[in-house]
Amino acid sequence: MTKKEQSKLYEFDESRLHRLRKLAVVGDIHGDDFVLCSMLKIIDPKKDGIVFLGDYADRGLKGFDVIAIIDSLIKKYPKNIVALKGNHEDYSVNGGPKFHPCDLIYEVESKGRGWHRYFQEELKPFIDKLYLAAIIPDEVLFVHGGISSRIKDLDNLKYPTRSVEIDVLWSDPFDGDGELPSIRGAGTIFGRDITEKVCDSLKIKRIIRSHEPMKAISRPNYEHDRRIMTVSSTSAYGGKPFILIIDAKEPSNISTNFL
Ligand SMILES: [Mn+2]
């Protein structure tokens, strides 16, 4: 008998959610270790949950440290920390980045480390722990980039095809209807009708994502009748980084906390 594939969707069922004091949602960090450290002054991973939305390295200077800190949080508090995969965590099995530019390679090499050894020994085991998406049933879906019409039920996120994975990692919402190839060269731009369909079929009220820090440079950005919320937790583009705080007892209650 073959071992059942590990689900790539983290589900906050009621028992998981009610154990937590609150749930913090962290957008792109992009090598900004300062915001990660500031966040850990107000969030206690012993009592609070944290959902990281991906894009941990590149652009900022401290991607190596950010990944090491998040990896240690996952090891220490596996029940409270959920880290999602972003397009900046998308590598071939040999450590070739599927995005550009990959500043992490130069950062690792400037520390006198070989990239391939670092990738095999540290980065790949970290990436293997990342989920593609997380969900609070009846409430919210968390992804790095977005959605597409390929997502018809939860199984598409639990056991994603490579096409679904690319859509989730790379896609962005746009002001219109339908679905078009993205100018990023991967994923889609998806319209209001796609958001509505995916929210209805997954029975959720909203989608929280990052991937476009410029859109949320100093506050959450809403699109598609407030069903899409974009967040940013990096100062790599200027502006004011922030996290979201979701009330564990009342998950529709979402507030913004500046770092
Ligand atoms: Mn991204």
Textual characterization of the structure:
It is a single chain. This protein is of the alpha/beta class and 259 residues long. It has eight helices and 14 strands. It has helices spanning 14-18, 33-42, 63-76, 103-110, 115-128, 154-158, 162-170, 192-202; strands spanning 9-11, 22-26, 49-52, 81-83, 133-136, 140-142, 172-173, 179-181, 188-190, 206-209, 221-223, 228-230, 242-247, 254-258. It has a six-stranded mixed beta sheet. The longest helix has 14 residues, at 63-76. The mean pLDDT is 96. The structure holds manganese (II) ion. Residues 55, 86-88, 144, 211 line the site of manganese (II) ion.
Structure described in brief:
The chain has 259 residues and is an alpha/beta fold. 29% of the residues lie in helices and 20% in strands.
Keywords for this entry:
binds manganese (II) ion, Purple Acid Phosphatase, chain A, domain 2, 8 helices, 259 residues, 6-stranded mixed sheet
Q: Please state the second-level CATH architecture.
A: 4-Layer Sandwich
The biggest beta sheet reads: 6 strands, mixed
Average pLDDT, rounded to a whole number, is 96
Flag low-confidence runs: none
Helix run count: 8
SSE blueprint:
Layout: E1 9-11, H1 14-18, E2 22-26, H2 33-42, E3 49-52, H3 63-76, E4 81-83, H4 103-110, H5 115-128, E5 133-136, E6 140-142, H6 154-158, H7 162-170, E7 172-173, E8 179-181, E9 188-190, H8 192-202, E10 206-209, E11 221-223, E12 228-230, E13 242-247, E14 254-258
Parallel strand pairs: 1-5, 2-3, 3-4, 6-10, 7-9, 10-12
Antiparallel strand pairs: 2-13, 5-6, 8-9, 11-12, 13-14
